[in-house]
């Protein structure tokens, strides 16, 4: 799962320009992106992408809602730096690979002929693209990022693993909930929105 290919066939460009291009392409042309931009063993750009998205999310979260900066004593600068480093070096990579492991198990149960684990890692990584705005203090924005990210995950799974959107949705439901609902905090505002709609329709 952690094997990288030095000169893979296909895959994404490296560097800030490659990250920016991947972000734009996966948001605007997801099917084409997942079909052409995910290559066996080419995890390095995907991991870098997920870390970059996580950092933007955390920086936005801390900037607009300082109460989320851990209180370690001695001011806010040190906890801020330590938290950002923890996200970049530990939390984001570990979350990505643990989610990919769970996603692989779910794919085994739902999809007969599948691509490799490396491709699954990349799909999850690039599906996080909308989460760059999830740190903003607007519930509507977090809801949109959550739904868009979940949709990208389903499209990516279907495209890369050669299955239907229905099977991809079943396989990706739990990972999408964990990543976008909990890691990027989209579940709480989404549930509140749904409850508000149901109340307005006198269903609950």
UniProtKB/TrEMBL annotation:
UniProt keyword list: Membrane, Transmembrane, Transmembrane helix
Pfam families: Yip1
Subcellular localization(s) per the UniProt record: Membrane
Domain Yip1: 25-181
Record's protein name: YIP1 family protein
Main location: membrane
InterPro entries recorded: Yip1_dom (IPR006977)
Source taxon at top rank: Archaea
Regions crossing the membrane: 44-64, 84-108, 120-137, 143-161, 168-184
Entry membrane topology: Multi-pass membrane protein
GO cellular component: membrane
